[in-house]
Write a structure and sequence with these properties.
Strand order of the largest sheet: 2-3-4-5-6-7-8-9-10-11-12-13
Radius of gyration: 19 Å
Oligomer: single chain
Largest sheet: 12 strands, antiparallel, barrel
Number of strands: 13
Order of helices and strands: EHEEEEEEEEEEEE
Strand content: over 45%
CATH architecture: Beta Barrel
């Protein structure tokens, strides 16, 4: 397994998004589109390791875990992950993040959701960042092979960045696209924009593009590109962080 570091920032593999007023209709649509939920928890673990020695001594380790359950009416998803890296004895990555999400269908395409996340990144000088986000969403495309959803709503952010505590109300916009290339391969894209209501110059823009292929039963290989743009970073740090990684995931 190989993890490619484009910048000296940590990564968190998060593979990362519905009952309803019309539960019967939603259930019929899910079955017709090959998306019939099982109502059981599906768990996965992702692990990566990269180490070199000789002219250059580097070490990067990372891991994440996810649990998800979907019924005809709703969806629960929990993810936790983190990474640590060193180059020539200097720390280049140290971060952790946990995300919880709930979706409830309001019909065939509309849904409401609630997302909560907490993160830490010593390289970006983020002691903590907590984001709570209710939202109203809609599937622009939803069929057996492809889905595209958009959602919007308020967020409340609590954070300590660069040693300064702050909290504020923000606007959150997000989208997620998934396309099933075959029974054993898929690609996805997700973008999230969070901007402070009283100062739109203070915003976060997070995006992810990924591809996953099944190697054998319950084991898959993923290639993931993640980018975070913080328009108001800690003093002396860059606004943009980019990472590219390959990882093995096991579902159980």
């Amino acid at each position: 397994m190989r993890i490619i570091r484009v910048r000296t920032v940590g990564w968190i593999c998060v593979l990362a998004c519905s009952g309803g007023m019309l539960a019967t209709a939603a259930g019929e649509e899910a079955t017709a589109q090959g998306r019939a939920p099982t109502g059981k928890w599906v768990r996965s673990a992702t692990v990566g390791l990269n180490a070199t020695s000789g002219n250059s001594d580097t070490l990067m380790v990372g891991a994440s875990a996810e649990a998800e359950k979907e019924t005809l009416d709703d969806l629960w998803r929990f993810t936790v992950g983190g990474a640590y890296g060193e180059t020539e004895g200097d720390k280049t990555a140290e971060n952790a993040k946990a995300v919880g999400r709930y979706e409830r269908n309001l019909g065939e395409r509309m849904f409401v959701s609630g997302t909560g996340e907490i993160g830490y990144d010593s390289i970006a000088d983020v002691d903590y960042r907590i984001i709570l986000s209710p939202a109203l969403g809609y599937y622009l495309i939803r069929n057996e092979r492809m889905s595209l959803s958009v959602e919007a709503g308020p967020s409340y952010v609590f954070e300590r960045v660069g040693g300064v505590d702050d909290d504020y109300l923000a606007l959150r916009l997000a989208d997620r696209f998934e396309y099933k290339l075959s029974e054993n391969a898929q690609i996805w894209q997700a973008t999230e924009y969070i901007a402070e209501f009283s100062d739109f110059d203070n915003f976060l823009l997070k995006s992810e593009v990924g591809a996953e292929a099944l190697l054998r039963a319950n084991l898959s290989l993923s290639l993931i590109v993640q980018h975070t743009y913080d328009n108001v970073p800690a003093p002396g740090l860059d606004e943009s962080d980019l990472s590219i990684l390959t990882a093995l995931s096991f579902k159980f």
